Amino acid sequence: MAIILGIESSCDETSASICIDGEIKANIIAGQAVHAKYGGVVPELASRAHQQNIIPTVDQAIAEAKIHKNEIDAVAFTRGPGLLGSLLVGTSFSKSFALALDIPLIEVNHMQAHILAHFIEDPKPQFPFLCLTVSGGHTQIVLVKNYFEMELLGETLDDAAGEAFDKTAKILDLPYPGGPLVDKHANLGNPDAFKLPEPQIPDLNFSFSGLKTAILYLVQAELKKNPNFLTERIDDLCASVQSRIVSILLNKLKKAAKETGVKEIAIAGGVSANSGLRESLIEMGKRYKWNVYIPKFEYCTDNAAMIAIAGYQKFLIKDFVGQDIAPLARMPV
Ligand code: KG4
Ligand code: ZN
């Protein structure tokens, strides 16, 4: 039997998970409300909140999994990419925990873990599969050849898809994190109400900064004509923006599927919680005869279950690290 403790602290979620023989028995996530009033994550405050949350979060995961901490066989933690101050808390905690219990330490790449969240529950994708990983900091199309053998086929040249959602929300005076709110308003609006540009980027790369500027100019121009524009048209605006972000993402995914011939198609990361993206991907999958894999909501946004499951796979091949390990703000997939 193998019991893995997973720790995630790369951004503003402190999370601990227990994985027993590849099955997730607990996945506790402590969010940080402190950032809402600043309109974005404040790194120093995130780091402090992780320090406060980490021990209670781990205690709760251990209690929920109904195990004793002495039964844990290894600690897997997010080494990067992410905010350095936040990563330091999870890394230091994990190193101390491993040292105290004299158990192995496993480093996990956060972006790989988002993808490996697909191995938490059935149905699981077959290798090789394509994964569109869309989060607050990243937008990538990855060819996943095996658990830890991944090839980056395309990525954003500027903003991430999550940032495009969050920055749109900011322009529309919605609080942070705006992605889920844009999604909610979009469900009530007309996606064809406003015409927004689709950038012409070669290859499988993305760009979202032009879209952000187009939204800003559109809102400024409309507000001059009608000061109540935002309140009156927020649903249509959100629906139009969401529809454009989804089409940018899925057109590239379609291109990647065509170029590679791969028909196992997955999405991952916080933006994969978006209802428009989920629905459109299912439709596209039917049209192109893909097998489509969409994570459960709780495994889309940051969580330690994905760290624990990635850690379990590394535990099986004894891929451990020493106490000299340090977190990395940047880390390729
Ligand atoms: O993966 P994640 O939790 O954290 C990072 O590693 O960045 O992703 C967070 C991002 C945020 O930008 C958030 O606004 C976005 O995911 N997000 C959504 C939705 N839920 C979360 N974006 C659009 N629609 C959603 N329903
Ligand atoms: Zn993430």
TrEMBL record:
It is found in: Cytoplasm. Substrate binds at residues 133-137, 166, 179, 183, 274. Binds 1 Fe(2+) ion per subunit. It catalyses: L-threonylcarbamoyladenylate + adenosine(37) in tRNA = N(6)-L-threonylcarbamoyladenosine(37) in tRNA + AMP + H(+). Fe cation binds at residues 110, 114, 302. InterPro entries: ATPase_NBD, Gcp-like_dom, KAE1/TsaD, Peptidase_M22_CS, TsaD. Keywords: Acyltransferase, Cytoplasm, Iron, Metal-binding, Transferase, tRNA processing. SUPFAM superfamilies: Actin-like ATPase domain. Residues 24-308 form the Gcp-like domain. The keyword Cytoplasm applies. Its EC number is 2.3.1.234. Its cofactor is Fe(2+). It is an enzyme of class 2 (transferase). NCBIfam families: gcp_kae1, T6A_TsaD_YgjD. Required for the formation of a threonylcarbamoyl group on adenosine at position 37 (t(6)A37) in tRNAs that read codons beginning with adenine. Is involved in the transfer of the threonylcarbamoyl moiety of threonylcarbamoyl-AMP (TC-AMP) to the N6 group of A37, together with TsaE and TsaB. TsaD likely plays a direct catalytic role in this reaction. Belongs to the KAE1 / TsaD family. HAMAP family: TsaD (MF_01445). This is tRNA N6-adenosine threonylcarbamoyltransferase. It comes from Sphingobacterium kyonggiense. The lineage of its organism: Bacteria, Pseudomonadati, Bacteroidota, Sphingobacteriia, Sphingobacteriales.
